[in-house]
Design a protein that fits this description.
- The protein has 154 residues and is α+β, with helices and mostly antiparallel strands.
- The chain has one domain: Glutaredoxin (3-Layer(aba) Sandwich).
- It contains five helices and four strands.
- The chain has a four-stranded mixed β-sheet with strand order 2-1-3-4, sandwiched between helices.
Length: 154
């Protein structure tokens, strides 16, 4: 199954050619082996193969800027505990050498795909896109804070 059509792949290559300036590391957390079978909780991953294809296509759109690491959570348990990733598939986006603070859980297709592209571009350019007002509000935080954004067409 082609997650991203050829026409979109070329558009992505053309866009990344000018939009990306620095390196980006994608990490895909997956649990392979079940294809589309529905298994008991904790076993298999019906969308992991599609997520892998999507992550590989992003990498292939700008291989000189984007690297991809695939982590099998069923084999690499110690690594996953360090990264604190519980759900698969998860695509983490980071600048090279930094901790991934942007994560997409599930398969970011449809309305979520543009947000993934935006995240890759912003990380590459080291741009957060926040207003000064938002930065000032964040500077007042005294404890670690986790922000979750839920996107769904429904």
């Amino acid at each position: 199954m082609a997650v991203i059509p050829e026409s979109v792949r070329q558009q992505l290559k053309d866009r990344f050619e000018t939009a990306l300036t620095g390196p980006v590391k994608l990490t895909l957390y997956t649990r392979p082996g079940s294809s589309r079978l529905i298994l008991p909780a904790g076993l298999g991953c019906p969308t992991c193969e599609d997520a892998r294809q999507m992550a590989e296509l992003l990498r292939d759109a700008a291989p000189e800027k984007i690297t991809l690491e695939v982590v099998d959570v069923s084999r690499d348990g110690a690594r996953v505990e360090i990264d604190e990733v519980a759900d698969v598939p998860t695509i983490a986006v980071a600048s090279d050498g930094d901790i991934a603070r942007i994560r997409f859980q599930g398969l970011p297709t449809g309305t979520e795909f543009p947000a993934l592209i935006d995240a890759v571009e912003r990380v590459s350019r080291a741009e957060h896109g926040l207003s000064q007002e938002s930065l000032d509000a964040l500077a007042k935080l005294t404890e670690p804070t986790e922000l979750l954004v839920f996107a769904t067409p429904t």
